[in-house]
Amino acid sequence: MSRTPALTRALSLPIWQGPVTAEPLGGGITNVNFVVTDARRRAVVRIGDDIPVHQVMRFNELAAARAAHAAGISPAVLYHEPGALVIDYIEARTLSAEDVRAPGMLDRILPLVARAHREIPRHLRGPALMFWVFHVIRDYAATLKDGDSRHSPRLPEVLRVAERLEAAVGPIDLIFGHNDLLPANLLDDGNRLWLIDWDYAGFNSPLFDLGGLAANNGLSPAQETAMLEAYFDRAPDAGLWRRYRAMKCASALRETLWSMVSELYSELDFDFAAYTETNLAAYRAALDAFEET
């Protein structure tokens, strides 16, 4: 394995004892990740500084990860320093979108998400961020314009849609959201699920995580109905459906703009252009559903 700067950094952290080896951990599209083994343990090392264009602040990720562990949601933080975070390795499989859609899986995922929403704030220390998707969308649009993105011609329409969606969401209930419910952020160890990667954590509406879970994993209308009924403990009425569909559409739009910005600024070896097209399709489908309400 070649000694990239990230690998050298991971191997040189002062917590290791005895011989140390590292293997790349695939799947991440924000950080460079490794599984590191020393004489005592295996651990996951996440190498990454603040990412201002994505509003990722590492102090916030660290605080959320610690609180999530205290709440029984996420693995323990073993060590941190600026630009590096080490968390306990969990022997588990990473879920796919197909896994999330599989019969019975939502019945396992939703209680974990609801616990995160309720219980993480009880353990959170220090300053905390708000994750408001419509601010993120406006900021991404400005970043794309400033960077002369190939997607700039789309931006006026994007901002018009976002304004309509924000008005449709209206007042919100406030919880502590994960805000990045991609299937790769859910682990199954055979006994329980874990929720990982708190780069975008912050106070938000629960509808954003629910909408993101649906948009990122291709949930069926029947699964969306069951999800809302289970989370809110009641059948969704027309008002809830409209607010939820607006937030689901905003979630898909935010993921699309995230990818567009990453096309300009990410140095990771990943096909962000293809990812943009995938998310554009999810956004358009979500917008069609919103327009029908």
Report on the architecture of this protein.
This protein is α+β, with helices and mostly antiparallel strands. The protein folds into two domains: 5-88, Phosphorylase Kinase, domain 1; 93-291, Alpha-Beta Complex (Aminoglycoside 3'-phosphotransferase, Chain: A, domain 2). The chain has ten helices and ten strands. It has helices spanning 5-11, 58-70, 97-101, 105-123, 133-146, 155-169, 206-217, 221-232, 238-265, 272-291, and strands at residues 21-24, 32-37, 42-47, 77-81, 84-88, 93-94, 175-177, 186-188, 193-195, 202-204. The strands form three sheets. A five-stranded antiparallel beta sheet has the order 1-2-3-5-4, with helices on both faces. Strands 6-8-9 form a three-stranded antiparallel beta sheet, with helices on one face. Strands 7-10 form a two-stranded antiparallel ribbon. A hairpin with a 2-residue loop joins β4 and β5 (84-88). The chain is globular and about 60 Å long. The protein starts with a helix and ends with a helix. The model has no long low-confidence stretch (mean pLDDT 95).
